[in-house]
Fold:
Amino acid sequence: MSVDPAPTAPSLSVPAPRPATDPRAAPRSAFPHPPGGRAAWFAWSVGVSVYVLAVVHRTSLGVAGLDAAARFGIGASVLSTFSILQVLVYAGMQIPVGLLVDRIGPRRVLLLGVALMSAGQLAFAFSTAFGPALASRAVIGCGDAMTFISVLRLAIRWFPAARNPFVAQLTGLAGMGGNLFTTVVLAQALHTAGWRTTFGAIAVTGVLVFVAVLALLREAPPGASAPVPREGGRLPVGRLIRAAWSEPGTRLGLWVHFTTAFPANAFGLLWGLPYLVEGQGMSRAGAGGLLSLLVLSSMAFGLLFGRLLSRSAALRLPVTFTVLGATALCWTVTLAWPHGHPPLWLLVVLVLVMGSNGPASLIGLDYARAHNPPERMGTASGIANMGGFIGSMITLLGIGVLLDALADPGSDSYGAHAYQLAFCFQLVPLLLGTAMILRLRRKLAAA
Structure:
C-alpha cells in the first residue's frame, strides 16, 4: 500500500466545475485538494468502525437462521421474511439517507445509524415471537442503511479523487471483517452463550462505537469548503432525485450493483448455511468454514479490485463482466451436478468466486460518484446502492417460496433436490441485470 504524503492545508479556491459526465468532476470540484495522509486514515477508521458493526448486525441472521426457525417455529418462506424485510428497509432508505448525507453531513447520519441498530438488536435479543422479532430486524435495516454511504462521503472529503476507488474497496474489505466475525465468533457464541446474551452483546457494542464517533470523528479536514450547488442554491428534494436518476451513469451503477451483489448476499445473509447443512449434509462447523472462506475471498478481491480500478477506470466493465461470467458458470455447474450433490472442491471454487461479488458491486458506486456533481453525490450513491439489495430481496424471497413449494409433505427440512431447483432462481435476476448493463453501457457511451 502506498503511503500518502503528510496532510497539507487544503486550498479554499473552487475551480470551475466540469460537466457532470466527466469522471473527474465531482470529487475535485466539491472538495479541492483533500489532504489524505494520517488524519484522513484516522477519520476513515472511525467512520468505518460503524460500517463494520453494521455488517455484523446485517449478517448475524445468516448464522442464526436455523436457530431462528426453531425459536419462532417458522418455515423457510417465513424465515426469509426476516432478511427480506431487513433488505427491503435498507434499499428503501438509500435515497432518504443519501439526501440526509447531502444535507446534514455523514457524522450525524452515522450517529443516528448506530443508535437505531443498537436499539433494534437489543429488541431482537429479547424477542420470543415472530412479530416483534420482525419489527426489530426492520429497525436494524434502517440503521444499517445509514452507514456505507456516509463512510464513502467521508472518504471523498478526506482523500484525493484518485484514491477514492481504492478507499471504497478498503471500506468493503473492512466490512468483510465484520462478516468474518459473524461467521467465526458469533456462530460459536450462539451455541455457548445463547441467543439473548449473544445478540445483547452486539447491541451493547454499539454504545461504545457511538461514543467513539461522537468524540473522535471530524467529517472534513480543517478549513475545507462545503460543496456549492451549481445552480447557486440548495436543490429541492424532487429535483435532486430526478437529476441524479437522469444521469445514465447513476442507472448503470444501480444495475452493476444489482447484478454483481445479490448472489453472495443471498448466500451469506440467509441461505448459505441451510444449503450447506441440509442440502449438502455438511456439519455446522464445515459450513461455517466455507462461509468464512467466502469472507476471506471477498477481502482478497477487494484489495485486487481496489488496486486495478485506482489505476484505470476503463477496467470497470471488464471486471464486472468477468465476475458475472465466472459466477454464472460456477452456479450453473454446481446446480447441474447429478443428484444435487456437487463435490467439496466445486463448492470451494463456487465460494471463492462468489467472494468477488461484493467488491465488484462497488464498481456501481464508482459510476454514480463519477457522473454526478458534488451536491447530489450522496443521493446518486444511494440510488446505486439500492441495486444489490433489491436483487438480494428478490432472490431471498424466490428461493424461500420455491423451497416451501418443493418440500416433502410433513417434512420440516429440505433435501438436496429442493435446494438444487430453488437455487436455479438466481439465474433470473442475473440475466435481467446483465441485459440492463449492456443496454445502459451503450447509452452512457452515447451521452
